[in-house]
Specification:
By secondary structure, this protein is α/β, with parallel strands linked by helices. It is built from nine helices and twelve strands. Bound molecules: fe (ii) ion (2 copies).
């Protein structure tokens, strides 16, 4: 099976579309794994929902931005500009799209991989970023591979019994990792719609379960068009700026 691994799209339709086009150019995939945060921040929540609804064999977990549509406590946790963008998002989402987002799971435990937005200790708020957090999560999932999102930073953590977990940030635009037996991996494919590792290019991955490889890919997209929409639709300026800076 080949899966596209997608995360943190954040209503950025141009970036999402560019990623889906690239996946087709690479020969397509058998299914899609989505690590959460489809909406929030960006200008096109409805278009992004419609596009995701059409993806075949989609496995999706919810992110904190997705959940904030339905949970007041998650909304209250946001910064002012995130709140403004969520109010805009709620106004610009159809009932059908809201129902679609409600189908996203809290966590996923499958044969080929597990998946959660933040961490298994608190799926929507906790971040899984350090080796200490990695160890605390180890007995919350089974198997050798887990995908997370939320931090918007692509990385791979690997763990061999009795050794300290290793953390590697993905560097470069196209990196393929061969996954080895007896090692457990947590991988963040990075963010499609709002990268935060100072690289403004959209980030995603492709898992090949037969080859036991994970390929991380960065691609450019039309950032200026998204920035123009953010401005025209009255969304906070910071959301436009950070797209250009990748942080
Ligand atoms: Fe996010
Ligand atoms: Fe998040």
């Amino acid at each position: 099976m080949r899966y596209a691994v997608l995360s943190d799209i954040h209503s950025n339709y141009e970036a999402f579309e560019a990623v889906l086009k690239k996946i087709e150019e690479l020969g397509g995939v058998d299914g899609y794994a989505f690590c959460g945060d489809l909406i929030g921040y960006g200008p096109d929540p409805e278009d992004c929902c419609r596009r995701m609804m059409g993806l075949k064999n989609l496995i999706a977990v919810a992110g904190n931005h997705d959940m904030s549509l339905f949970r007041e406590d998650f909304f209250a946790w946001f910064s002012d500009y995130a709140k403004q963008s969520m109010l805009y998002t709620a106004r610009n989402l159809s009932k059908q799209s809201q129902e679609f987002i409600k189908t996203f799971a809290k966590e996923y435990h499958g044969k080929d991989f597990c998946m959660v937005h933040g961490s298994f200790l608190d799926p929507f708020r906790d971040y899984l970023l350090s080796s200490e957090q990695f160890v605390l999560n180890l007995d919350k999932w089974k198997g050798s591979l887990c995908f997370v999102g939320h931090s918007h930073v692509p990385f791979i953590m690997s763990y061999k019994s009795n050794r300290m977990p290793q953390i590697d940030l993905f560097l470069g635009s196209d990196v393929t990792i061969k996954m080895l037996p007896a090692i457990r991996y947590v991988i963040n494919p990075g963010s499609i719609g709002q990268p935060r590792d100072t690289n403004a290019k959209a980030s995603f991955g492709i898992l090949d379960t037969k080859q036991q490889t994970f390929r991380l890919i960065r691609i450019p997209y039309d950032i200026a068009s998204v920035q123009k929409k953010i401005e025209e639709r009255g969304l906070p300026e910071i959301l436009s700026k950070r797209l250009g800076q990748g942080k």
